[in-house]
């Protein structure tokens, strides 16, 4: 995150997917003095789910409530996504936000795509977990008390038995044995964070139905029944 200085009065937006990388990016950002006042999420307007993660937007709101941070969820089609992002970045700038925090790790093309649009809107582009070894990031997430459940797996990289697995101490060793990126940065898996330092309390949830979608197996995460 070098190259930026953060002022106490500055407010930031964080691109929130609901997964462990978003949670770790938020934790690192706030620990370094960045005030994140809004979570921004783009999801599929037809399904009401986060693309790839398959998480329902309502479950993102549960996370936001547990963090005490405003969630702005924007439903779009895939083709509308870029236009809506540019519109939203412009609105953030008008509202006086200083920058955008993202949770990219090592995909340079993805980072460049967002960085170009964020900086063009006159906002700072902040990547708290960029360039860190994925194994170290998983360890940091878990050792900080972070926990997440795997909600989607790419069946060409992992089998369906990983669906619903909790990211905990055991997970680090087990995912390392598969040979994939431990953070799933290439889309091998996606997750839903339910515990950790960014939350005021553990989020209670229950597993719902599983479904297959274009080579991916997905698990629905639902609010826990009282």
UniProtKB/TrEMBL annotation:
InterPro entries: Diphthami_syn_dom (IPR002761), Rossmann-like_a/b/a_fold (IPR014729)
UniProt KW Ligase keyword: yes
EC number(s) recorded for this UniProt protein: 6.3.1.14
Pfam families (alphabetical): Diphthami_syn_2
GO MF term set: diphthine-ammonia ligase activity
Sorted UniProt keywords: Ligase
Residue ranges occupied by any Diphthamide synthase domain in the UniProt entry: 12-204
Highest taxon in the source lineage: Bacteria
NCBIfam families: MJ0570_dom
Protein name: Diphthine--ammonia ligase
Naturally occurring in which organism (per UniProt): Candidatus Dormiibacter inghamiae
Lineage: Bacteria, Bacillati, Candidatus Dormiibacterota, Candidatus Dormibacteria, Candidatus Dormibacterales
């Amino acid at each position: 995150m070098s190259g930026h200085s953060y002022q106490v009065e500055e407010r930031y937006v964080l691109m929130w997917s609901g997964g462990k990388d978003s949670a770790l990016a938020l934790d690192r950002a706030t620990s370094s003095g960045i005030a994140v006042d809004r979570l921004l999420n783009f999801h599929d307007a037809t399904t009401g789910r986060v693309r790839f993660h398959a998480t329902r937007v309502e479950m993102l709101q549960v996370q936001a409530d547990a963090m005490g941070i405003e969630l702005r969820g924007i439903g779009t089609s895939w083709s509308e996504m870029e236009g809506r992002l540019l519109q939203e970045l412009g609105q953030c700038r008008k509202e006086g936000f200083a920058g955008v925090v993202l949770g990219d790790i090592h995909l340079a093309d993805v980072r460049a795509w967002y960085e170009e649009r964020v900086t063009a809107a006159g906002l700072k582009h902040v990547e708290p977990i960029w360039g860190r070894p994925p194994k170290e990031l998983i360890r940091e997430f878990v050792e900080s008390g972070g926990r997440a459940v795997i909600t989607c797996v790419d069946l060409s990289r992992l089998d369906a038995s990983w669906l619903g697995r909790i990211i905990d101490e055991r997970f680090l060793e087990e995912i390392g044995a598969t040979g994939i990126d431990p953070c799933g940065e290439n889309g091998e898996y996606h997750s839903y964070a339910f515990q950790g330092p960014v939350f005021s309390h553990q989020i209670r949830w229950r597993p719902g139905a599983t479904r297959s979608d274009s080579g991916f197996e997905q698990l629905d995460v639902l609010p826990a029944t009282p």
